Amino acid sequence: MQSHIIGNTLPVLEIALNAGEGLVAETGQLSWMTGGIELRTTTNTAGTTGFFGAIGRALSGGGLFMTEFTAPYAPGVVAFAAKIPGRMVEVQVYPGQGYMIHKHGFVCGTAGVQLGTGFQQSLGAGIFGGNGFLLQRLSGNCTAWVELGGEVIERRLAPGETIRVHPGHVGMFDESVQFGITMLRGVSNIFFGGDGLFLAELTGPGRIWLQTLTLPNLAHALAPYMSGEARSQNVETATELGVAGAVLKSFFSR
Fold it and tell me: How do residues 166-225 score in pLDDT, each as one tens digit?
């Protein structure tokens, strides 16, 4: 198996499979494939063997169904294009050395990949109508590819070193990194700061990958150029991605 990431702004991941090799990907990720590739959509993959396991994966932001791509008889190529401007990151996953990734970050992985709920917390849903903050746990024994938005800032945190990040900018981090949610202090910061109510708190040791582009921010930038109906639909999508989306929804519903 050989992988090749083409492009910088809107990259595409091409993977050449040898006969007998395969991949697991989220449904809807496929961009193109050669004639030797076969695909099968199923719930029983990526570490789940039953329907309820697939439900748990779906609640973490993954798909209820996954697609398996195989090259059963001859070599073939399958490609996955980025959904938004950003980067494709290749990671090696080993038992006891997994990753937490943002809920729409998983692109595909080789046999042995496991996806599950890594973190789920409500962020003031009763007040702002947000759907909370979700992370996927990427584990198993495989090679996997993750999509991150915009530019990617990789940092290594020393033991006990802490950084606070707007939740939307958390792209991925090592399982060894401790993760929590902290609320901003100060009435003026909360109501007039424009940065939301909550920050993610990441504490080392381990690596973190921060993404500069979030879908709520992209939706906000495009909103003035869209019709009212399309703008509303766009903000609804952004709302699913975090607290910032909830604030946008309130703004555009006026």
Answer: 888 999 999 999 998 887 655 454 444 444 567 889 999 999 999 999 777 777 778 888
The residue among 104, 117, 18, 105 whose CA lies nearest residue 69 is: 18
Alpha carbon separation from 10 to 31, 64, 96, 122, 252 (Å, rounded)? 13, 26, 32, 32, 28
Same domain, 125 and 207: yes
Structure tokens at 120: 């789920």
Task: Give the predicted TM-score (pTM) of the model.
Answer: 0.76
Beta bridge partners of 39: 69
Domain count, the chain: 2
Q: Are residues 207 and 227 in the same domain?
A: no
Range of the domain at 118: 2-213
